[in-house]
Amino acid sequence: MDEMHPHSDDAAPPPHGADADLNQHDDTLREKCGVFGIFGHPDAATITALGLHALQHRGQEAAGIVSFDGHRFHSERRLGLVGDTFSRRDVIERLPGTSAVGHTRYSTTGGTILRNVQPLFAELNAGGLAVAHNGNLTNGLTLRRELVRDGAMMQSTTDTEVILHLVAHSKRNRFIDRYIDALRAIEGAYSLVALTNKKLVGARDPLGIRPLVLGELDGAPILASETCALDIIGAKYVRDIEPGEVIVFDDHGAQSHKPFPPMAPRPCIFEYIYFARPDSVAGGRSVYQVRKAMGAQLARESHVEADVVVPVPDSGVPAALGYSQTSGVPYELGIIRNHYVGRTFIQPTQSVRELGVRMKHSANRAAIEGKRIVLIDDSLVRGTTSRKIVKMMRDGGAREVHFRIASPPITHPDYYGIDTPDRAGLLAANHTLAEMRDIIGADSLAFLSVDGIYRAMGEPGRDPANPKFTDHCFTGDYPTPLTDLDQTEAQPRQLSLLAEAS
What we know:
Elements: E1 30-31, E2 33-39, H1 44-54, E3 62-68, E4 73-79, H2 82-86, H3 89-93, E5 99-105, E6 120-124, E7 127-137, H4 140-149, H5 160-169, H6 175-185, E8 188-195, E9 200-204, E10 213-217, E11 220-224, H7 228-231, E12 236-240, E13 246-250, E14 253-257, H8 270-275, E15 281-282, E16 285-286, H9 287-302, E17 308-311, H10 317-327, E18 335-337, H11 350-353, H12 356-360, E19 361-363, H13 365-368, E20 372-377, H14 384-395, E21 400-405, E22 418-419, H15 427-430, H16 433-440, E23 444-447, H17 450-456, H18 472-475, H19 483-490, H20 497-501
Parallel strand pairs: 17-20, 20-21, 21-23
Antiparallel strand pairs: 1-22, 2-5, 2-11, 3-4, 3-5, 6-7, 7-8, 8-9, 9-13, 10-11, 10-12, 13-14, 15-16, 18-19
Helix pairs in contact: 4-5, 5-6, 9-10, 9-17
């Protein structure tokens, strides 16, 4: 889900990795959301809370659960981490019922406010509907304006609410037909879980950009963003929801609908590079093994004489292992991460703010002093934190620092649910390789090639006529229309959301 702006550059804290929690201009990509749903289990809310805990890395600003007890819907939506709210017995007791959907989120421009926390709920003509959304609608703002002109009254600033209104406006008789009508109107990337008084519904965009998996626990079906959410509750993985599939669970079983013309799937490559937990399996591939393969391919493409390979924790660890094993350069924990630091406090001065990186990471002098190190990270966005990490290594006694990135240069912004700067804020979009090396202060800098990342995924390379993944951040190849962006560029004077709607 995303707030209703064609593109945004938010200040929400990132989920993990070298640049987490430093400041609003950090060097980390941020995935917006995780979703979870279960149907027909007596501990639905508790299981949903546990599932959301496993998906915490996908959103740390807010969390919510909506349950249904056979008569009424119950909702608990709070700002903060899952454990801050849903570890409390009194909160879970306020979520009775055998079915539930849940959501973790990041905010976008404007900050997190309670009315935007999902799942969103509405009373429609046929009954209640709760929806949780991972992704971003690239025509959400356009649809919103049309709905408001037709008299709709919006209660939030998220594109998810557009889906509720589209369902309500459909003239079809059956709920599932109205729901599919809504899906046919939207563009972009989405995985959705929805709960009615009779059904749990999952849906995935026709290209399969955003992930959604099906599991089973004690006979109850489960929908989740990642398999790690199934593992935490002891559920069995059944399969991935197919791109373009709408799956419905009710008391009569499961029904699968395929309302879209078949398209070649293009899942988001960044799920494998960064967003998914390494213990998840996505599209039949172990995320951990893929990241190791990316590091191995990086070693083959850009080996440098060195004494140790050092990961930027935590997201650079698997790639660093792969690089070390392939290059033969020993792997060392040259950076120690403090796992007991929460979100960085709001530092009052720039001088104190500059120390922020040391709250999360510190140099392990014993492993790097006097040595030539290969520093491995998963991606480089603005370069701000990378520069601080390189300086930390030099201050820790490293003789040479060679920076290696286990993904290609990010040259284009994302519009599908990943928070990236616009092109002006992307280091690789505005500087040569040599300039980037000098900006971050490394002795050398190299990225994994686009073909290399495909090889790490088991492909022979990237086929421009038929790319297997959504890789627009590296290539500029956006696989869906960008309706909102096109309209914004045609009308440079963009008013605030509320001004547009008034």
